[in-house]
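Marked as duplicate of an earlier ticket. Keeping the data here for the record.
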Amino acid sequence: MAERRRPAVSAALSGLTLAALVVLVFALPRALPGDPLAALDDPTSGVAITDPELRERVLAHYGLDQPLPEQFAGYVGGLATGDLGWSIARNAPVSGLVAAHLPWTLLLMGPALLLSTAASYVLGILAAWHRGRTGDRVALVGLTALRAIPEYVLATLLLIAFAVLLPVLPVGGARTPFAEHGSGLAALADVGAHLVLPLATLTLSLTATLFLLQRHTVVAVLGADHMLLAEAKGLPLRRRQFVHAGRSALLPLLTAVGLQVAFAAQGAVFVEAVFAYPGMGSLLLEAVAARDYPVLEGAFLVLALVVLAVNLLVDLAARWVDPRSAAS
């Protein structure tokens, strides 16, 4: 009976989460000081409107003259039809802006999560296996210190080191402006070169946290019965490290990865700002400066849905890894 209730409870929780998410996405932009039409009151903005009647017409055009409940009802009605709204600052559909920027953020976040998980898995096992030795101490101190560095500081340090002092990588952006590539492979290499520093920043930041958990988990299982049995059987060292010890530590690592997805999205915003990377972070920062409510709502909502989707995939992977789920 309990098994039958699980899908219904899960669906109810998902519905409540989605409803809370929509309310939060609507409320957050309006909690910012100012409003999207503040430029209309600034005589130096170049778009100032001195005619009160004309200003009211502009407010009415974007629905900003309505009470908040009516604005929220219009926002939910638009979402129900797949309409994310119209950008006030850019005079363009929000869906088009999101479609132009989201792939760049996914290109940054996806590899960063995969690389940080793989690096933490391997380094955590090796450090735990050689705990107390020089390599373990260096990794522990280095990554603990790295964990305390904010993403934008780390991004700035890497930018100065590898794009200014040692100019081997591009300073910023995602592609070389006005460059004519002779082939698709050359264009791909150009995108890859611009991705190196943002990807390295986000990967290092995520690895610092995941490594500490992985090392601690592996240390805890080294004295377990199955590890002693594997050693007694004379199994190869790599098999004992990455199959027996690694398998036992994989479930907590995947759980931590699910929790890190939101931090990866947050870190991507700061990293994109430092490197002028044209992802969702850049779109969000411009929208915050302009108090562009529709863009902020659409960007927040899409990023939140991406985080939920990745968490779902991680949860499915964790259930596949968990031996208890297979037994049930």
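See parent ticket for discussion. The chain has a mean pLDDT of 84.
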